[in-house]
Amino acid sequence: VFMKQKKRYFLAGLFVISGFLLFALGCILFGGSELFAEKLYFETYFASSVQGLDVGSAVKFRGVPIGKVEAITFTADTYRNDPAVLERGNSDTVFQSLMYIRVLCSINLKEYPSYSAKRLKQMVERGMRATLGMQGITGIVFINLDYYRVNKANDATDLKFVWTPEKIYVPSKLTVLQNIV
Fold first, then answer.
1. Cβ-based burial of 93 (10 A; exposed 0-12, middle 13-18, buried ≥19)
2. Measured between alpha carbons, how far is 15 from 24 in angstroms, rounded to an integer?
């Protein structure tokens, strides 16, 4: 009788442990698939507030979601010890550029395999810029990528900095709303 009771406890414990393992495996397969996805990273900088933009916010190309925001920091957190920054010292230009907001974004290559580093650089050369977009009146902000006319006047409004970006750099452009504010 004692051995039968031990066997039942063992089987019950085995059942609970295997159920937990199956649950954990299911969570990883269905919820964590993005952990193993190959991503293309790029960064953009903003000289003004990014209020409403959060890690996990959408990155859209002409309104189509293609990725998400991975990190939001100040450029000083990443580039203050860059040799080009240290060489220039405490000039006003360097000081101002270290106060830019750096937004690191990713594109999921599993869902969008046509994107590559080469293609993204070509898109930037052809006038693609990042702006802050607002979704309705909710205050939810996302990164919107779209083409704008590129000429000498537009290039003058691109943010200036002395470091070499760690990831592919996509210049930002002020939206009409930001210009008004």
1. exposed
2. 14
Where the chain has pLDDT below 70, the residues are: 1-3, 27-36, 150-157, 175-181
* CA–CA distance, 20 with 42 (Å, rounded to integer): 38
Burial per residue of 58-90, b for 16 or more beta-carbon CB atoms within 10 angstroms, e otherwise: bbbbeeeebbbbbebeebbebbeebeebeeeee
Beta bridge partners, 43, equal: 104, 169
Backbone torsion region of residue 21, taken as left when φ is above 0, otherwise alpha when ψ lies between -120 and 50, otherwise beta: alpha
* Rounded-to-integer distance, Cα 98 and Cα 47, Å: 10
pLDDT, tens digit, for every residue of 146-161? 998 766 555 546 788 8
Do 138 and 121 touch, CB atoms closer than 8 A?
no
Q: How wide is the angle at C-alpha 146 spanned by C-alphas 162 and 76, nearest 5°?
A: 25
- Which pLDDT belongs to residue 24? 75
CB 147 within 8 A of CB 131: no
Can you tell me the distance from the alpha carbon of 40 to that of 102, in angstroms, rounded to the nearest whole number? 16
Position 31 scores a pLDDT of: 60
- Rounded distance between C-alpha atoms, residue 120 and residue 61, angstroms: 11
